[in-house]
Q: What sequence folds into this?
């Protein structure tokens, strides 16, 4: 009869340098994969599929001058050209992308009434001071309320068309010409009832300046 089997011998203890070497190799591999390989692959895919968006969605004048990004609104009411431009939504941060902003009040928040009242009075005074729209105009919600980001570049067509008379008076263009320019910049939703139609105000203003030979 054979005697009882011996238990397996324990594995030899690894020295601490082995653990350090393994950790160092893992760290180097992680840096190469997550810090170099992955960003490079994602960048190449983005540059191939959608290079315009990957490079910041930059908008340019016909002469090539970069005006801004299609994703970020600007303070278009400021400066000497302000009255002759379409204005974007109000901003709680003066369109500064480095500042955070509290979310606007919701439909059931009593603060919404006060906010809209103040914004409406401000915008009506600004509009009437530069030629329109009308003394007792009812302004679309998007034109008197800030967006959640405070840098939303888009407005509904109604919020842009209500500015046509003011822009026409300030630029000397006919109402028909300005209205046609707005209609040509309306982006419809990809499918009916999937989103709303909108106008990128910065794109529209670049086209307006180009029409006047100012851009």
A:
């Amino acid at each position: 009869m054979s005697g009882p089997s011996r238990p397996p011998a324990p594995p030899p203890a690894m020295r601490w340098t082995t653990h350090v070497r393994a950790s160092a190799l893992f760290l180097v591999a992680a840096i190469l994969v997550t810090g170099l390989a992955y960003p490079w692959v994602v960048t190449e895919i983005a540059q191939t599929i959608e290079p315009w968006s990957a490079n910041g969605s930059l908008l340019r004048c016909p002469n090539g001058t970069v005006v801004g990004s299609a994703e970020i609104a600007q303070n278009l009411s400021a400066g000497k050209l302000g009255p002759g431009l379409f204005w974007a939504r109000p901003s709680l941060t003066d369109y500064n992308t480095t500042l955070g902003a509290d979310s606007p009040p919701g439909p059931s928040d009593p603060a919404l009434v006060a906010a809209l009242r103040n914004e409406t009075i401000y915008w009506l005074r600004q509009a009437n001071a530069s030629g329109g729209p009308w003394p007792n105009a009812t302004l679309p919600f998007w034109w008197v309320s800030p967006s959640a980001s405070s840098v939303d570049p888009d407005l509904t067509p109604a919020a842009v068309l209500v500015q046509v008379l003011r822009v026409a008076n300030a630029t000397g263009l006919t109402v028909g010409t300005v209205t046609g320019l707005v209609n040509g910049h309306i982006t419809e939703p990809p499918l009916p009832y999937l989103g709303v139609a909108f106008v990128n105000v910065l794109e529209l203003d670049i086209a307006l300046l180009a029409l006047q030979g100012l851009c």
